[in-house]
Amino acid sequence: MVNVNMEINEVFDYTKEINVYNDGNKTSYCVGDKPFEEIMVSWNALLEGSHPMPALGVSINKETVREMQKGLWVEFGFDEVLEANGLPFKKLLVNVSQDYYGFNLIRYNTRGGYDGRCLYIDLVGRNMTDFYNVVINI
Description:
7-stranded antiparallel beta sheet, globular
């Protein structure tokens, strides 16, 4: 099922799995796991008051996969293909950095991986420090 009418902030209610990549090391959490719930609470707080914006970014799968080998990344996985702003995805990936005041949501599709247009979230004068600290300390 594809839900065409969702706002980007609403799709995270359908998250079934979170993958955290820390310098290429992957750790997965499922609904009901304490770390999953802690990440989701912090993520929802991060998105509060944020604004989706038109994204200028385009992801190239090969480049994104290479970049995921360094730094902190969080990937939100869904059981089905969802759609926001006319863009379908099975997963959404974000690079997490304390000093980001906005970020690309990189869409994953089963055909092209991380290839294609991104979505963008403006944190409206706030940064990712609190979210970063939750994720890095789990």
